[in-house]
Every structure is written in structure tokens, then in C-alpha cells.
Write a sequence for this structure.
């Protein structure tokens, strides 16, 4: 099996909630180590599509996924990979910062590492957690209170804790579903800077309903409207010379 | 602040509910006062010995009367603890099955069943317990344990009738399971979906994710447990039928005993014959009253602290 040059390849993807067809025949190629933004108005299916990339949709029994999603050339929906392996390699940051409130800062990060046996000793665990917190730019703020619960952290800090939790697993892809939607502007700026930093090592798929954010941080962008892919390409090109009238309308705020 | 008030109008519901609230509150204080005042003679006569000795001298001659309910207190704690040991694993696995694993239709049936179980009159459990559960436990649990484990001191006596702390504990456990599992189930279903997603997105298996999510609702489960304990310790009718009704301070779970409530229920009829017994039964009731109050408050406190901690 040849390793693909794309982190994620989506072919003829269709997703249904019961009879509700929410993702319609989408084809998409996401190159490695870039920031790939998926933008579109609220309700157009961004979160749904993202959750098909790590098989999180499997949790919902009413969902049907047709078509294929390849992760570095491997089909994630056929016998090739199981869902646990997929999720280990495709980390996810959510719209709502969701560190586990009943686990300490330390244990929030340790959880995935321990359960997946990604570290061999307590020392390695400590080191990995410190490394991840540093990468997420949170170490200085929490190093003295690793055993505290996340309830004392601000929204932005919680979201960076979630990012640290993901980075610690050393996934190949990091998906973020509107990661700054519930964060104040200062916290949002930090997270955007972080995304910029992380793309050196990871492929980042960023869902946003804010075109300005896509313009600021992404290399590629796909515009989705009512479950269909309108167009995708390099960010610079889409923002300066979109092919579709629909994209142009969206970018100029004329589409709600 | 209601908008109506701003315009100087009464909120009629506020206004109409005051008497009811006042009535309930007065009833509570009144009951507590009756229990306290009626127990005073027993305390004056015997002091704390009412609670800390194990004697039951009901005598025609008032001077020789002497009572201490320690065995019943012991029995209440012992049977309630056994009840929890039975109810907790049952409730947790039942809830997880109903919420996570059961197909939709079965889920509805199971939920209705446990609601019905919760509402059954306790005498129904009592009769079933006395005629079916006790002989069953004696044959299939007590005798085998005695046969194989009698080298352990608390199992060294041969079970006689089967009416015992253990039978009462198991029956109570079965009786409180619908309540405890309702609390556990509610807590478990109210876990925000985002934590479920977080757990699975970290590559956890279903079992591991479930374990973490149970950890999240653990305090709610603890408070459900505490409330279940309160229910178990207060339950009367069914327990009186299976506990054996004997003054017994033994740790042997298969020996007969009393609980505070079964003591009151079975001795109440005699209390008119004797001079000092009524006050002692009030003192026993007061103990139960205070324990119940304490347990309920503790359960509510744990739940509230948890809600504050995990609120986001
Ligand atoms: N769990 C669900 N069950 C049923 N329908 C859903 C569910 N989640 C989302 N949908 C529907 O799918 C469509 C796309 O939703 P979503 O993917 O959340 O959009 P976006 O993230 O772009 O706002 C919406 O019409 C929404 O109502
Ligand atoms: Mg969304």
C-alpha cells in the first residue's frame, strides 16, 4: 500500500441523518501539513462532515455514511482500520472546550495516552504531558497546578488544554470544529497563532463559520453550502478570485 | 424578579402557595417536637443507655423495666449496608444497559418496569421475601457459604431459619434498586454529549469511555446511594417480615436480628401494657428521624457540590 500525499481524501461522500441528506456527494483532497479550512454558514453540514473523518458519527445510530474517506491512503470505513485506530490518528478539538471536569489537568492529558498505551513509563508520561502542554502554549500557566481541575481555567485555557490532550497523542491529523467560537478575542488570537505553529508537524482541518479566520490561518479552503461543496482551493485564490458567484456572495457577507 | 411585580401586581401563585409551604414546614417542626418531647422520659430514666445497651426487659413491674435499642441500631446499619452492596452494582449495570446498550423498544419496557417496581406497596415485597426469597437464599446462599466457608468466624454458625440480617439486606437492596437506578440513570443520561464525544475521540473503546463517563457522574451516584441508604434504613413492613425480629448484636449475617423500624413496628402493640416502653419507642423513632434527616441533607449536599463543580 502506497502512502498517499494527501492526509485525507474524500470520495463521493454522502451522509444522512435518517432521511435527512446533509452531506451531498462531496469530493475533497486535504494535503499533508497544511491548514485546510472548511467554511460555510451554520447548519450546512461542516461538523457532520468533520465527524465522518474520525468516525465519531458512529456514535449516532441514525447516521448513514456512503462513499469513502481515506487517511494517508487507507480507507477508514472498510476493514482496513478500526474506529479506535482512526480516532487515535485523527485528533479532535470541539466547538465547546470540553476537558473532563472530573479529571485533573494532568489526567485529562494522561487519559488517552494511558488507555492507548502510548507511553511506557510514568516518567515518559510526565515528559509527554509537559511536552504537549508546552506545544499548546499552556505550560507556564498550569505547571504549578497540574492536579487542579479544569474548572479554574478560562475558556481559552480550557481549549488549549483540549489541544494539548490531542497533541499528546501525536496524531497525524488534528481536526478543529470552530475552536474559537466560544472563546474571547484574546484567547482566540492565541489559538489562531497556535494553529499556525502546529501546521509544521500536523495536518490541520479547521472548521469555521468565520471567513476572516479562514483567510488568516489557512492554506487551503473549501466552501460548503447546504451540504454541497461549492468550491475548494488555495486560500489566496479563493479569497481573491472565487470561481463561483455563491462563494463571492458568502465572502462579502451577502449570504446568510 | 417577576415582571408582574414590577408593575405592582401580585403573582397569584406566589401568594396562594404560601399557606401550603407554611403548613408543610409547621408539620415538620411539630413532628420533630413531638418526638423530642416524648423521648425525654426515656432519656431521663436511662440516659444514653437507651441507645448504647442491648437489653429489652419488658416487665409488669415498672421499676424493673429496662430498654436499650443498640441491637436494633446495629441491625439497621447492617441491613442497609448489605442493601447498598446489592443495590449499587445492580443499579449501575442496569442503568448503563438501559441507556447505552438496550435497543429502543426494550429501553421503554425496562424503564416502565423499574418505575412500577418503585411504586409497588412494600408489603408485596415483604410477602414475596418471606415466602420465596428467604427459603431461596437459605438454600442457595447461606447453606453453601456455611458449608464451604464456616472457618470464617462470622459464617461459623449453621443458618437456622433463614430469617436474618442478610435476607433483610438483600430484600432491601432489591427494593431500593429502582430508586437508586433512577438517580443513576438520570445522571448518566444527562452527561453532555460533548464529553461522550471527547472520550471516544481519544481512541477509547466503549468500555473505557463508559468507565470515564461513570466517573463524571460518580458524585450523582453517591448521592443516589445516600438517598437509597436513607430509604433502606427507614423501610419497615417488608423488613419486619424477613429480618427475624430478635435482639442480636451478632456480626453473623445469617442470624436473625432487629432493625429500628421493625422494632418499633413489632413492639408498638405491647407498649400500652408497659409503663416506660412508649417513650423508648419514641426515642428509637427520634434516632431514625435524625439519621434520615442527616442522610437526606448529606445526599443533597453532595449532589449540589457536584453540580457546582461540573457546571460549565
Ligand atoms: N445529531 C443529529 N441528528 C439529526 N440531525 C442532525 C444532527 N446533527 C446535525 N443535524 C442536522 O444536520 C445538518 C448539518 O448540521 P451540522 O453538521 O451541525 O452543521 P454545521 O456544523 O455546518 O453548523 C443540520 O441541518 C442539522 O440540523
Ligand atoms: Mg457545527
Amino acid at each position: 500500500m502506497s502512502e498517499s500525499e494527501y492526509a485525507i481524501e474524500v470520495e463521493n461522500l454522502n451522509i444522512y441523518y435518517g432521511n435527512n441528506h446533509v452531506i451531498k456527494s462531496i469530493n475533497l483532497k486535504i494535503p499533508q501539513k497544511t491548514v485546510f479550512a472548511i467554511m460555510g454558514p451554520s447548519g450546512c453540514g461542516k461538523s457532520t462532515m468533520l465527524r465522518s473523518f474520525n468516525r465519531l458519527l458512529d456514535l449516532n445510530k441514525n447516521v448513514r455514511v456512503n462513499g469513502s474517506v481515506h487517511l494517508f491512503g487507507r480507507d477508514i470505513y472498510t476493514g482496513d482500520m478500526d474506529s479506535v485506530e482512526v480516532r487515535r490518528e485523527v485528533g479532535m478539538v470541539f466547538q465547546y472546550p470540553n476537558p473532563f471536569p472530573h479529571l485533573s489537568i494532568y489526567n485529562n492529558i494522561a487519559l488517552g495516552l494511558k488507555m492507548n498505551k502510548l507511553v511506557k513509563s510514568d516518567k515518559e508520561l510526565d515528559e509527554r504531558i509537559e511536552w504537549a502542554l508546552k506545544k499548546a502554549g499552556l505550560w507556564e500557566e498550569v505547571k504549578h497546578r497540574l492536579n487542579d481541575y479544569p474548572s479554574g481555567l478560562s475558556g481559552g485555557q480550557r481549549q488549549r488544554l483540549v489541544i494539548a490532550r490531542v497533541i499528546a497523542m501525536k496524531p497525524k491529523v488534528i481536526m478543529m470544529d470552530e475552536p474559537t467560537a466560544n472563546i474571547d478575542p484574546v484567547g482566540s488570537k492565541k489559538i489562531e497563532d497556535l494553529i499556525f505553529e502546529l501546521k509544521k508537524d500536523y495536518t490541520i482541518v479547521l472548521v469555521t463559520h468565520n471567513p476572516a479566520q479562514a483567510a488568516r490561518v489557512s492554506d487551503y479552503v473549501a466552501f460548503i453550502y447546504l451540504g454541497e461543496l461549492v468550491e475548494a482551493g488555495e486560500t489566496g485564490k479563493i479569497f481573491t478570485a472565487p470561481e463561483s458567484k455563491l462563494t463571492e456572495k458568502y465572502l462579502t457577507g451577502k449570504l446568510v | 424578579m417577576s415582571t408582574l411585580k414590577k408593575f405592582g401586581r401580585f403573582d397569584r401563585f406566589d401568594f396562594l402557595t404560601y399557606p401550603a409551604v407554611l403548613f408543610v414546614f409547621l408539620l415538620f417542626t411539630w413532628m420533630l417536637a413531638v418526638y423530642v418531647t416524648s423521648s425525654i422520659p426515656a432519656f431521663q430514666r436511662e440516659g444514653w443507655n437507651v441507645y448504647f445497651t442491648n437489653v429489652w426487659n419488658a416487665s409488669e413491674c415498672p421499676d424493673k423495666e429496662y430498654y436499650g435499642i443498640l441491637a436494633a441500631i446495629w441491625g439497621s446499619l447492617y441491613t442497609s449496608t448489605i442493601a447498598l452492596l446489592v443495590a449499587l452494582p445492580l443499579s449501575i449495570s442496569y442503568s448503563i444497559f438501559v441507556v447505552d446498550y438496550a435497543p429502543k423498544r426494550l429501553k421503554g419496557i425496562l424503564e416502565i418496569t423499574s418505575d412500577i417496581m418503585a411504586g409497588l406497596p412494600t408489603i408485596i415485597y415483604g410477602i414475596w421475601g418471606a415466602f420465596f426469597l428467604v427459603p431461596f437464599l437459605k438454600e442457595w446462599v447461606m447453606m453453601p457459604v456455611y458449608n464451604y466457608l464456616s472457618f470464617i468466624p462470622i459464617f461459623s454458625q449453621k443458618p437456622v431459619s433463614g430469617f436474618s440480617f442478610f435476607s433483610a439486606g438483600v430484600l432491601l437492596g432489591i427494593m431500593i434498586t429502582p430508586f437508586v437506578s433512577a438517580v443513576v440513570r438520570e445522571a448518566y443520561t444527562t452527561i453532555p454529549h460533548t464529553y461522550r464525544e471527547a472520550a471516544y475521540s481519544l481512541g477509547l473503546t466503549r468500555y473505557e469511555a463508559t468507565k470515564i463517563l461513570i466517573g463524571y457522574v460518580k458524585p450523582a451516584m453517591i448521592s443516589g446511594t445516600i438517598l437509597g441508604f436513607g430509604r433502606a434504613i427507614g423501610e419497615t413492613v417488608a423488613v419486619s417480615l424477613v429480618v427475624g425480629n430478635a435482639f442480636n448484636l451478632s456480626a453473623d449475617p445469617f442470624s436473625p436480628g432487629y432493625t429500628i423500624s421493625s422494632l418499633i413496628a413489632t413492639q408498638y402493640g405491647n407498649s400500652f401494657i408497659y409503663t416506660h416502653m412508649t417513650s423508648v419507642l419514641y426515642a428509637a423513632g427520634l434516632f431514625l428521624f435524625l439519621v434520615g434527616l442527616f442522610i437526606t441533607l448529606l445526599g443533597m449536599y453532595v449532589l449540589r457540590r457536584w453540580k457546582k463543580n461540573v457546571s460549565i
Chain B touches chain A through 21 residues (CB under 8 Å). Chain B has a mean pLDDT of 90.
